[in-house]
Target: Aminoglycoside phosphotransferase family protein
Amino acid sequence: MIQVTQKQKEEAIAHFQYEGVLTSEGPYGSGHINDTFLLTFDVEGKGKRNVILQRMNNEVFSDPVGLMENIVGVTSYLRKKIIDDGGDPDRETLNVIPTVDGKDYYVDEAGDYWRSYKFITDATSYDKVEKPEHFYQSAVAFGHFQCMLADYPAETLHETIAGFHDTKARFATFKKVVEGDVMGRAASVEKEIRFVLEHEDVANYFGDLLEKGEIPLRVTHNDTKLNNIMIDNETGKGICVIDLDTVMPGLAMNDFGDSIRFGASTAAEDEMDLSKVSCSMELFDLYAKGFIEGCDGKLTKREIELMPMGAKTMTFECGMRFLTDYLQGDTYFKVHREGHNLDRCRTQFKLVEDMEKKWYTMQEIVNKYSNNEV
Model:
């Protein structure tokens, strides 16, 4: 997308129901998809108030209207539940600020879509696991998110990115990309291609179970990284799940698995020394404990049993996506060096191999907590 101009930003600011006088504004956060700004207003008699303003990326999210319908539907539902539970709805869920004409988003003269949220005070999101307690708190928070939305009709949500975690479809795409070999790179990554083809059963596993009706479709977050949880500065508790752009129908095991893929790895996602890459069973244990605790009995026994498979599937899928992008000429993921996507792909496949070696341990950990030994 074209960079946001000051004129665009001022136009957007003028069209939301903000209170007070704007005293400062600037870029905010570490996200790569939307353009995010922090605005500070001086409100008479109330002091300073912060709000978040975002230009949505309609290249990634082609239906911003449907996306906002999802967010408003889910956050309104959560707000009622939080109030019923005696919580603080201004801090425990996102709160959309309406435009001056009462809509949930604003379309500027350039055709770009904007939205605004109340700023969650006295809480922090962390880009990496600085202490294990944060990882545990994120698990409880994402599990609690599942718990609170267990009765929300998933089929009413729009699919904001089509086939986002359809591993079976991504596998079919991968095979076509290998056959096309538009960059002439396939010959140099035969080992990695073979790894994907040998794991076709992993790609098909959840899709087949869903078709048979053995696992339920739920409201899922689909981007369960640590930095999508706000952790209270005073209590250290995970209080709010943020970045709801990918909230749509999905599988609870995939939400669990994506967290493990990213948070329980002993190395960076693009680590070149594969001897450093493994799945920490200590962190896996911590996250499984927190997630199952947060779900508070809302998952089926089968879903809990399949949580290790969720970790393996999401790690495999991510590695396959990195390899697909490498074969297509690095057109989707941002790269910062030659072969960057290939390095990322290799770390994910090493994690899959490590999980396979530790499969019995992972199952034992999940079984331990599924038996209410939390």
User: Anything to note?
Assistant: The first helix runs from residue 6 to 13. Strands lie at 21-27, 35-43, 47-55, 106-107, 113-118, 123-124, 218-220, 229-232, 238-241, 248-250.
